[in-house]
Amino acid sequence: MILLWMIIVIISLFLMIYHSHLIINITYKKLNNDDIVTVQLTALYGVIKYKIQLPSLDFINKIDSFILNLKLRYKRRREKKKKKLIIKKSKTIDYLFHTLENLNKRYRYHIKLSKYMIKKVYIKNFLLKIEYGIEDAYIAAICHGLFYILMTNFIIFMQQNMNLQVKAIALKPVFDKEILNLEFNCIIDIKIGHIITALKMLIKTSRGSEIDGTTHRRSYENNSREY
């Protein structure tokens, strides 16, 4: 009986986590020489909350260091796998075609994964306000038209390819004065279950490419012994 209740509790917790949402609230404000990036993460129905507020340069440096650490970990794992497997490189045309085929498969899988994530992500309260000024009023007026066309086309493109809800877009020119103020905000909402599915797809892709490569190498080695 206790085991049954434990199974029910575990299944219930899994379903709660799977159907919960990860909400990322991103705000960027640049006023004169001050610029601040604020990122707030909320998950598991508000149980987990995390907020970071930094100058944009420090925020970018943190992201760069995080990406660098991930790359180093991935490189170390790859080196360990290479040490375990003794790979004999073939210079045949067959091996070349097989390598190209694997690269093509990985590219298609990554495209599929990217499209899946784009479809599942919902961006709401998208806000973009730009206030700019140039001393030459004529150039400022021309830039206003160009910026407006670019922003409009960008929003239309985004709405055609993903779930995007626009709150406000404003472009304000200031004449006879050099100035650049910017305010950006959006809320990214994605279900935890979709993230889990995407991770499964990524793991399956990486394992599949490694298995294909190993199988080919072994078959080549077996064939090479016959000659």
UniProtKB/TrEMBL annotation:
Organism, scientific name: Lutispora thermophila DSM 19022
Protein name: DUF2953 domain-containing protein
InterPro entries: DUF2953
One Pfam family here: DUF2953
Sequence intervals crossing the membrane: 6-24, 137-158
Keyword tags: Membrane, Transmembrane, Transmembrane helix
